[in-house]
Structures are given as structure tokens and as C-alpha cells.
Automatic annotation (TrEMBL):
Protein name: Uncharacterized protein
Top-level taxon: Bacteria
């Protein structure tokens, strides 16, 4: 028995086969480009959301630092007053003795 080899493609590229192959390639390429464009759009939305969250966190930290700074200033001034009162009490106690 003789084996028959099937012809998978023509020896020469004809306009019809070229057009078919090119149209297939063009359709696949177009789908790929649309997928990439969608991916970039999705990434842009995600990056905008991340940037918004970072700004919100930054504002929260700024408010926290400002409130801590004012509290530290208040504590420092109260400590100075207490130290001043301690010195005055010690002077009065030394006068009484």
C-alpha cells in the first residue's frame, strides 16, 4: 500500500490564501490590541484609586501629627508649670524650716 501525503498548503501563495491568512491574523491582532487597551484602562482606574487612598492616608497622618504636636506642646507647658511650682514649694518649705 502506498501512503498518500496530503497537501497541507499550496506551493505558491495565491492572493486568496494570502487574504485569508492576513484576515485571520488581522482579526487576532485586533482582538489582542483591544484586550491590551482594556487592560491599560483597568490599570488606570486602579492607579487612580490607589492614588486617592494614598492622599487620604496622607491627610489623616497630617491631621494626626498636628494634633499630637499641639498635645505635646500642652504637655510641655504643663510640665514647665509643675516644675516651676515644685521649685516654689521647695523654697517655701526651706523658709518654714
Amino acid at each position: 500500500m502506498k501512503k498518500i501525503v496530503k497537501k497541507t498548503s499550496e506551493k505558491y501563495v495565491t492572493e486568496k490564501t494570502f487574504k485569508t491568512k492576513f484576515d485571520n491574523f488581522d482579526a487576532k491582532f485586533e482582538r489582542s490590541m483591544q484586550a491590551i487597551a482594556k487592560s491599560f484602562a483597568d490599570n488606570a482606574e486602579v492607579m487612580a484609586l490607589i492614588l486617592k487612598e494614598i492622599r487620604d492616608i496622607h491627610e489623616g497622618n497630617k491631621h494626626f501629627r498636628e494634633s499630637m504636636s499641639s498635645l505635646y506642646g500642652d504637655v510641655f507647658s504643663h510640665d514647665k508649670r509643675i516644675d516651676n511650682l515644685d521649685v516654689r514649694v521647695e523654697k517655701l518649705e526651706s523658709k518654714v524650716k
